[in-house]
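Risk register update: the risk of archive-format incompatibility is retired. Evidence:
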Amino acid sequence: MEHLARVILLVVIGVFLVVALAVQILLLPHLAAESATSWPEIAYLEAPVLVTAIAIVACAEVVLVILARLVLLTDSDRIFTRASLRWVDAMTGCFVLAAILAGGLGIGLRANDALNPGIGVMLCAGIAGCAAVALLLIVMRGLLVRATTMRDDLAEVV
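Archived output:
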């Protein structure tokens, strides 16, 4: 049953990756072009906003790939190794980077008087969410370190 759950999780991660790629390739450029057409007074922000939005989605894609890697490590019973800590660190870094990018986007939009209150609320929620997940990952990393140490100690005894 556990193996089936991991397979289903990997399929779901794959679907999320495909959706994220579609958002990057199809949806974001379309929305940016449409916004530039609808509001020509801030059309000069089209490229920087588009690049930032694509970078934020790329952070999510990297997190999904790392998550898939960690699932595969659990499948091969290699999750309790020092190498898995680097993957967790990279995932934490992606969430921190996404929060910084979202914050920069909000500051840039506000500085150009282009920050809609709804967009501002969504950016704040995204920043808070990314920060919360990054903090959770730091705590979980500590638990992984303890479990890895315990497993290493047990391996020495046996």
